[in-house]
Amino acid sequence: MSTRRFTDDLPEKNNSNPDPVAAVTGSAAVRIARPQQRPVAVPTQASRPEVSPPTEEARTPRGESKSRLGAMLPRTLAQVINEADEKVMAGDLVDFVPLPTGFDPLDGIIGGGLRKTELSLLGGAQGVGKTICALQIARNIALRPDQYVFYLSYEHSEHHLMHRLLCLESINPPEIDLTNGLKLRDMFNIVVASRAKKFMGKQGGPGSMQAILKDHPITAPALARLQRYSDRMIMLKASPAVTNLRAIKEMTTRLADATGGNVTVFIDYLQKVAVHPERPRDENDKVTIIVEGLKDIAMTIDVPIFSIVAADREGLKSKRIHLYHMRGSSALDYESDIAIIMNNKYQILAKDHIAFNAYNAKNYRNWVVFTVEKNRAGRAMSDVEFELQAQHFAFNPRGQKVQQQLIDDKIIES
Length: 414
Fold this sequence. Notes:
Radius of gyration: 23 Å
Order of helices and strands: HHHHEHEHHHHEHEHEHHEHHHEEEE
Distance between the termini: 43 Å
Strand content: 5-15%
Number of strands: 10
CATH superfamily of the domain at 100-182 and 218-401: P-loop containing nucleotide triphosphate hydrolases
Largest sheet: 10 strands, mixed
């Protein structure tokens, strides 16, 4: 699926419209590049009227929830407790129940999954499977009937992400049934061959892409699985020139209002988020602005944010990548709540394992080690591994703790 383009005006929130996509991409939604768009953030001190405190209506512009806006105002501990009591009595337990990523035992290490107000980072070298992992986690969350996903990609179009998801669904994680596993080339050949038959006037060639995929025995099950959550996954081909923090905050706010706050934001990837009108001095300054902005969005809008981060040049030269190898690592380390670094297992194994059993060493190339290097919910520096099915753009989410010795003279507990 793909979202529509944005137009100029910012409509007022319409509670009668239950469609979260329409809340962001409707006929009168926001154009992210326009400097005249109205920000969602609290007005600056210079713009505040010098009068008595605003009324309750003035505190909730465009239908924002009182609890979200109340987080920006001073409150006593008693008020916080009372608000928590009201939420629990109303059956709102989102603050107590995290969103599982679907990757086991990773969820157990990070406290059960992703939580609202938290910023989670996923780093690693190019080609290790960061986008595959992020998109699969997004898919796992969108499979829940009460949850929505907002996936912003600065590197891939919505159509490409859809094709990846079709390949993923063909093996149906966590089942990982490779008998009908679909590769991008196979799917493209199926569509092209069907259209060629139609063009040549042969009977039985369906017209639309959906009809072609639904008619083919290999692609039909994948399409059916994809359609289970297609209305709950909102995608955007973001632009590194215009999709800035203010645009992300505005769109996320509208989605949070439209979905009752049940939306998780994915950024692919952090260093490509546009920074304007700010003028950062260097790369570290730019990353600091971005990561602080994303953390502010997570806390003020009360949503989880999951972002991919890229390594710097020194990190790409290293045999094992760590959080301090990420571009702008100081700000990333301070602002993130969870930081997971991915490394190919073959590259970081101690050499005695490779020399002892060359056959097993070859198989290690298909495994990726996830190291939880920052974890506010529990113990850090824990290593788990998952098998990558790269041709199908999927991980086997049933992983395990690493048993072998890795480089850096670090022995993993069994």
